[in-house]
């Protein structure tokens, strides 16, 4: 019995030794070579993981750079579009208002021609040659005005209009109680616009109330104020009598 138990114990120890890692160099079990191989495998796994992490970081950085480049491209395209629109607007304005100085300078000859025609007496009997001359000047003035309108130059309507400092230049005040105060009642010099831009302001006379009329209106206002005060005092007295 003792010999069998010793054999069984030897077999168990052999089985335990066989479960330990076997070294390929010294063909032994549980040596330091096997443990160094395990450490090397762990190091290799850690290096592989570090490489994967570094690749992921580089990929994230590249994605961020791509997004930044996209934003810069969009911003640049927007700036280019704004520049294009501004150049187009300046081009249109240059075409529209390129001759604004010339248009302003040729207004004076037209004013002089119109004044000369207005100064001629209508009832006077002129010779035939003078009548023909007057008719020719009227035709010239009509063609002159049509040419101005063709190039966007229009006359500013002033008479019986409310005074507007953007288009009118007040030269005098005219007493007139028939119209509202601040109304244009006289035109000294015509004004013009070019494509809705002021070319020359119209010189006008503006209406104002007469001194006597203003005094009457002041007296009327004072009387109305006194009447309102009397009514309020009467109401307060009635209320006091009722309470007593």
Strand order of the largest sheet: 1-4-5
Low-pLDDT runs of 5+ residues are: 14-21
Shape: elongated
What is the count of β-strands? Answer: 6
CATH A-level architecture of the domain at 103-211: Roll
Distance between the termini: 140 Å
Tell me the CATH topology of the domain at 103-211. Answer: Nucleotide Exchange Factor Grpe, Chain A, domain 2
The rounded Rg comes to 53 Å
Mean of all residue-level pLDDT scores? 78
Number of helices: 6
Q: Major sheet: size, sense and barrel closure?
A: 3 strands, antiparallel
Structural class: alpha+beta
Order of helices and strands: HHHHHEEEEEEH
Please, could you describe this protein's structure?
There is one protein chain. The chain is of the alpha+beta class. Helices cover 65% and strands 13% of the residues. Strand 4 and strand 5 (197-200) form a beta hairpin. It starts with a helix and ends with a helix.
Supply database-style keywords.
244 residues; alpha+beta; Nucleotide Exchange Factor Grpe, Chain A, domain 2; 13% strand
List the helices and strands and how they pair.
Layout: H1 2-19, H2 32-97, H3 100-105, H4 107-119, H5 128-150, E1 153-155, E2 168-175, E3 184-189, E4 192-194, E5 197-200, E6 202-208, H6 211-243
Parallel strand pairs: 2-6
Antiparallel strand pairs: 1-4, 3-6, 4-5
Helix pairs in contact: 4-5
Summarize the structure.
The chain has six helices and six strands, in the order H-H-H-H-H-E-E-E-E-E-E-H.
